[in-house]
Amino acid sequence: MFSLKPERLDYRISTTEMEVRYTEQNGVNINVDVTPLVESGEMKYHHMQLSFSNVAELRCITLNFYEANYNTYELNGTNPDTGIYQVSDSQWLEQEREKYDPTHRLQLKHYIVVGYDSYAELLASTYTVDIQ
User: Fold this and answer.
1) What is the spatial distance between Cα 101 and Cα 107, in angstroms, rounded to a whole number?
2) pLDDT of 42
3) Whether residue 105 has pLDDT greater than 90
4) Which of 79, 84, 69 shows the shortest CA–CA distance to 32?
5) In the predicted model, is pLDDT for residue 38 greater than 90?
6) Nearest to 46 by CA among 10, 85, 86, 81
7) With contact defined as beta carbons under 8 Å apart, do 93 and 108 qualify?
8) pLDDT at 113
9) C-alpha distances in angstroms, 69 versus 3, 61, 62?
10) Are 124 and 111 in contact (CB under 8 A)?
């Protein structure tokens, strides 16, 4: 069992389409549609771009995350469920850390970004969020 900590955001992923773009120089950009966590009475969608830097590895999986991992994860923390998680006790990160970041200079983390019927997993340093 692995532990997921929802990332602190004011939005929740609510998309049926996820676009993932990887380049050597710019890392990984993930585009999704989101809705505000605090509802204002009308359902308003926004476009969110997550830009990950120092990406060591990227996996794109075409399965519903929650169905594919039923009973294998637990949600931790006090943040609302946004669909963007950091894996607290990542075996994948521990296995690959010596290869990608033996001195821990990059401070890699294991992130999961969940769409509707797909999800992306990354070993990356950090990310920025752009909402439109």
Assistant:
1) 8
2) 72
3) yes
4) 84
5) no
6) 10
7) yes
8) 98
9) 12, 12, 13
10) yes
